[in-house]
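Anyone? Bumping this.
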Amino acid sequence: MERFIDLSLSAIMLAGLYATMAYGLGLIYGVLRVVNLAHGGVIMAGAYLGWVLFERWGIDPYLALPLVIVASFGLGILMYRLLVRHLPRGPAGGPASLLLLFGTWLVLRNVAYLLFTGNDQSIRTSYSTASVPFLGTYVSVNRLAVLGVAVILPILLQLLLKKTYTGRAIRAVAQNADSCTLVGVDVERIYALTFGIGTALAGVAGLLSATIFSFNPGFGSGELLKSFVVVVLGGLGSILGVGLAAFILAVVEVFAILVLPSYLTSAVGFVMLVLVLVLRPGGLFGHRVLG
Amino acid sequence: MSAATPALVPLRVAAGFVVGVALLAVAPWILDFTPYSHNLVTLAFLLISGAVAWNWMGGFLGQVSFGHAALFGMGGFVSARLLLSGPVPAPLAWLVGGLVAGVFSLGAHPALRLRGPYFSIATIGLGESVRLIFTYWEDFTGGSSGLSLPIDPDMKHQLYWWGLGLAAIVVGMSWLMRHSTFGLQLLAIKADVDAAGDVGVSATFYQDLVFVLSGAVVGVSGGLYASYFSFIEPNDMFGFDRSIAFVLMTVIGGVGTILGPVLGAIVFVLLRQYLLASYPDLYLGLYGTLLIFIILFEPLGLAGLLGRLARLARSWRAPAAEGGTP
Amino acid sequence: MTAPLLSVRALSKSFGGLRALDAVDLELAAGEILGVIGPNGAGKTTLFSLIAGSLQPTSGQVHFEGRPVTGRAAHRLVRGGIVRTHQIVRPFANLTVLENVTVAALHGNRRADVPARYRAPRVLDFVGLADRAGQFPGLLTLAGRKRLELARALATIPRVLLLDEVIAGVNPTEAVALAALVRRIRDELGTSIIMIEHVMPAVMSLSDRVLVLDHGRKIAQGTPAEVVRDPGVIEAYLGTSTEATAP
């Protein structure tokens, strides 16, 4: 029973993390129709940024959050302005955008490798091992904090999309970019902003992951695939859909430990990805874009 | 030019092809290759075959696969197992490896009806699943310690011509595909899969067929590769980096063209041998940067660049000729 | 009475809660041109997608030459002899005009006597694009691309041709020429045609019979003269007197 509660709690925490990553990927796809293959690279970059801030300047990862958000937002704007903007739009841009962003990911990985070598790192704070009693077991304080951030952030984002002018413009562009141009929305600016917000979420997800898992420059490929699973499964209709999909993935992953030999548990995400794609092919994100 | 004319091979193309292959076949004697360059060219032939086969899928059909290592590894391990099992002639083992890989590619059938990014990401998932399964299937792949084949210097020497033969066949197939009604249908599917269906082209059938062909060729090249290195290890053979290599070679050379993957594979081998031996830390970033520049500035890669240069040369000569005859 | 070439029984399609097509019946005789008209969103294109196999019907049947073909995939129906065109033309941009038609000529009717590579130039000639064979579709005018769309469909040697607004959107001169081309397809090739069209003069003069859809239902059917007098049709197009004043 304790084990069950333990696993459930890890599943909930993981779900929060997955939802944050997936929301960034899904937002960019929903608005720009581009799958950001560099998503994993940005997650990795966020992890390293948090690590540097903590190791060099002793800035607590949770205090570093705003810094990481700003930095990864800037990285996203840069990626959009320098690269993504120049791609052909529409179906012709499909393979091109995949390859371009894939190249970006390789560059990010290489930069991280040059700066930090390939060694595994992690952020170990004074409270990393602290835990509080809960239903007969113990919950890590850090994991609770991760969950807190992962819950608050998407909600803030949803408020931004629903209540502000910019947010409404983003949703309108997702529906129909051409009409937005006609009514005077600066679509280029919206694209850049959206890309920035998407990568900012990836950066945050990276920072949060870094407080729990160890990472190296190759970190992020599994995270990209998991984000994709969540987006495909949950659609872009609502925060709830994404949250639920993230929870399903996390539960399947965590409880696979009970039934599968340990070496196969890492394949669970991949198999789920393929199943989800095959069972829900076609306009997977398309129908209810940011409704 | 027109693919609608009967697919007879023009004499000039056929003659050029035969002469080129013949020259390469006698090159080791004429150029007096050192064992090092002999092996290097052999490796290039193996990679050319893989890149050209990847291009059928990624270039002609427009389905970018990030999972071809699964097929490469399959071909490699099946033929290695056969070679270890008894006195099996190597070419037979390679062929069987290719056939198994071809059949194995049908496992991706459900993913083949996905288009664009969905397909690509599904192939990442499939490829990684296959890698994990085979890495832990020690009875077959030897796990992380891999499989060692008996080292046979004669075989390694001969692989030059086997590799050349495979590359020649595959490049020839590529030309025929591109210049036949078969290739036309692949390009139609690439342009608009629904419209292709509306005029009677069965996208599912062609994608399956091309994927099997591509998988079989990549499988054969995996088998040759196993014989070439005499040692294979699942994390390398099935690894994501190997899948990426197919993508990189083809995109650098020119996706969707016939010569592109050939050029790309050559550049890939040269970069890896000369430049990256001195700067191993820059290997990923260099390829990433190349990829970015090619996508932004010359989507047809080196083949497109050469085409551009040729046109430039012609336009330089043409006005000069006019000016010369008043 | 001879059996119809194509018959559609109680064909329906729902998208979620929306009933896009509601129990529509129609019959098409050999050599007939049937016009399909109706306001935007009446379900015309959905009807085509269901017959041509691009969409699966929720219920109902389609029979072609007396055999059930309901829900069969588009590329298989093309081989049987049913082909459609699209309102928004979709040429293969990376292929030349001739190659576009060649792809289509490779499939389609198995009874074809002429090999594909010879058939394609003939079809281009028939639709008046022979001099554009080597160009890429991007260089054609809209009317040219509509002709290409027709040529691609004709290259499959269809018995039933479903034309989705092949005339709408081009200038009046070209509209007349395209209408004449549609008539020649029926008269010279003997192809039966169902055409969705907004250009009323064209559809009224070309059609033997006209079917009117509104909100997914068939509200009238008959000769063009009968249909224009039908009160239900007039109401569907003009709205009731109170609605007619609404913007």
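Late reply, but here is one note on the structure posted above: Chain C touches chain B through 36 residues (CB under 8 Å).
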